[in-house]
Design a protein that fits this description.
The chain has 632 residues and is α+β, with helices and mostly antiparallel strands.
Length: 632
């Protein structure tokens, strides 16, 4: 069933090493590796582990029994620490091999790795998780010749993936493989003594083949054991007596006919048996695949913090479901598991779902072609393609301000405020002013024939900023009732490197979102472009649908940077509140509105966002605690 090799790497250090391998049942084995700085504690711990495990873990309920055992072990460790008042350092890993199912839990710096049949090394333990007690179980279904490597230290701090793979290729003997690990650890001169154990799983394929043969026999017996078959045999015996009384030529003819009919009949029976066997076998395999899929999904749910293990188990689950779905059976089970996968993926990617309620509706009315939502002096405005809608008050119909001078093909695409006046940008790159007296008019620019072709408009203090189609940013200062000609920001050589800009916004300096979803920050005094590192990004940080709305939002009074991407509001945290020293952003969370398309959003303040769609304006209240976002 398996081969095992264990090695103690002794550097004559103070920590005590203990290992035990125990057979608990047929094809159910337990493996214990302990490193501790207290010899008395180590002996007592081992005795207690053996007492908790032997005759307490049963093959048909190994996972649950093991979980209960770990709770008892935790209680013993906590009691010892309290009574002894010593600072005990333990590196422990306890594992079970139940047929091909490997189950384990670990403490502190101990580690566990899988060397699979694709010559890949997968770290099953989370290297960032330094647990003081056994918190949860992890498990893995082993394939033939796959190897599990366990240790009281993090082996990949001293060995490379290629070391392990090369040694496996050079030698299939698990003892030689483990000795190579031992030799390289000896040369490292570690600060502690180390235990290393390697287990190579061997499957019993011949047993499965015999089971299939027995199944065919069983189906054949069932096919023959019925009244029709018995009657046919009786008639054949009567017919045999009549044939014996006939001439030799007639006997030969009857014999040939009999052989032909028998072959056809036998072929028919065998075909039926094979078909029934295949159908039953396919159903049994599909059922087994559903059970395995649920197991992989459970393992993924227990390893949300370990991206590699999580992704591999989700992939395994999805592959198994695809095979079953192709057979068009267990479709309800597949749908339920797929729902669970989607929930887990959202948890893994830190996605919080926003569910609208009557309590958080700010406005509900049909909005034709909404473009933007803005707030100024605590007043909310909606900008559509053709007009400005204001005031937005719950349970009342707002006024609509139409600018009749717009061409039929001309639409508003963006807007911003300078003090009490709104400035709107059209798709023909004209700027329209909406004054505090609710009057709409075109705005001129000095020393330019027209405003240049632009795709976004911003303001800061009394200046307008336009993002041109060529990705240059132009600043327009005020001059009485006009704006001065634009002053460009980017140098030509930088403009070529920036490539294509999707969105910009200002805290005191410019945040710039590029087409490849990298973010840079532009500083004008002194002039520099700072590419920001974005930390802890999830897998879904990508443009899922070309042409969808993508927008970046930042302000001097906000502690976070916000982004609309893939119909989700992303929350990013700068490394500092000093706007001149921004070097990086850290991904915090996503807010997803599953049932509606978000057209725009406005951040009233950190913890409060207003979102706009074709019909509603909703208010989202949330909080961020320990970099976790929760909608209230």
């Amino acid at each position: 069933m398996f081969e095992i090799s264990s090695k103690k790497v002794d550097f004559k250090k103070s920590n005590i090493l203990i290992k035990r391998n125990i057979n608990l049942d047929v094809n159910l084995d337990c493996f214990i590796l302990i490193s501790t700085n207290d010899a008395n504690f180590g002996d007592l711990l081992l005795n207690n582990i053996l007492e908790f495990i032997i005759d307490k873990i049963w093959k048909n309920n190994a996972y649950n029994d093991f979980s209960i055992t770990l709770e008892s072990i935790n209680s013993f460790i906590k009691k010892w620490e309290k009574d002894s008042e010593k600072d005990i350092k333990n590196d422990i890993i306890i594992s079970l091999l139940n047929d091909n199912n490997f189950i384990f839990s670990n403490i502190w710096k101990s580690s566990c790795y899988l060397l699979n049949n694709k010559n890949e090394v997968i770290e099953l333990t989370n290297k960032e998780d330094n647990k003081k007690y056994f918190n949860y179980l992890s498990s893995w279904d082993l394939l033939n010749n796959e190897i599990i490597i366990s240790s009281t230290k993090r082996l990949l701090n001293y060995l490379s993936n290629s070391d392990l793979i090369d040694w496996l290729v050079l030698s299939e003997d698990i003892k030689i493989f483990n000795k190579n690990i031992y030799n390289i650890l000896l040369s490292e001169l570690l600060e502690e003594n180390v235990l290393v154990s390697s287990i190579k799983y061997n499957s019993l394929e011949n047993t499965n083949k015999l089971k299939k043969i027995d199944l065919v026999k069983e189906q054949l017996i069932k096919a023959l054991d019925n009244n029709l078959s018995k009657n046919i045999i009786w008639y054949l015996l009567v017919l045999k007596d009549k044939i014996n009384s006939q001439s030799k030529m007639i006997k030969n003819i009857i014999l040939l006919t009999w052989i032909t009919v028998s072959i056809i009949f036998l072929y028919s029976i065998l075909s039926t048996v094979v078909w029934i066997t295949t159908q039953n076998e396919n159903r049994d395999l599909a059922k087994e695949s559903i059970i395995k899929a649920r197991t992989y999904l459970r393992i993924a749910s227990e390893n949300v913090g370990n991206s590699e293990v999580f992704s591999l188990n989700i992939t395994k689950t999805e592959d198994l479901l695809k095979l079953v779905k192709d057979e068009q059976i267990f479709l309800t089970d597949i749908a339920k598991i797929n729902d669970d996968i989607n929930i887990l993926k959202k948890q893994f990617n830190k996605i919080e779902i926003f569910e609208e309620t009557t309590e958080n509706i700010l406005y509900k009315w049909e909005i034709v072609a909404p473009v933007k939502i803005l707030k100024n002096n605590l007043k909310t405005y909606i900008i559509t393609a053709k007009w400005v809608v204001w005031p937005i008050i719950p349970n009342s119909i707002p006024k609509t301000y139409i600018f009749s001078s717009l061409w039929e093909s001309e639409n508003f695409i963006d807007a911003t405020f300078i003090w009490e006046n709104m400035y709107l940008l059209t798709n023909s790159s004209k700027v329209v002013q909406f004054t505090k007296n609710w009057y709409l008019s075109y705005v001129d620019v000095s020393w330019q024939i027209t405003w240049w072709q632009s795709k976004e408009i911003l303001s800061f203090w009394q200046n307008l900023y336009l993002l041109w189609d060529d990705n240059q940013i132009y600043k327009h200062s005020t001059s009485w009732w006009k704006f001065k000609a634009g002053t460009k920001y980017f140098k030509d050589e930088d403009l070529k490197q920036i490539w294509e800009i999707l969105s910009i916004d200002i805290d005191w300096w410019f945040y710039i979102l590029k087409k490849d979803l990298t973010i840079i920050k532009f500083f004008s005094n002194p002039y520099r472009l700072e590419k920001l590192m974005i930390n802890k990004l999830p897998e879904n940080y990508t443009i899922e649908k070309e042409g969808a709305i993508i927008d970046l939002k930042a302000r001097s009074d906000l502690n976070y940077v916000y982004m609309l991407l893939n119909n989700k509001i992303w929350v990013l945290k700068p490394n500092t509140t000093d706007y001149k020293s921004t070097k990086s952003l850290t991904y915090v969370w996503q807010i997803e509105w599953e049932k509606q398309i978000i057209k725009d959003f406005y951040v009233n303040r950190d913890w409060e966002i207003v979102i706009l769609n074709d019909t509603w304006i909703f208010l989202i209240n949330y909080e961020i605690s320990d970099d976790r976002l929760l909608i209230r």
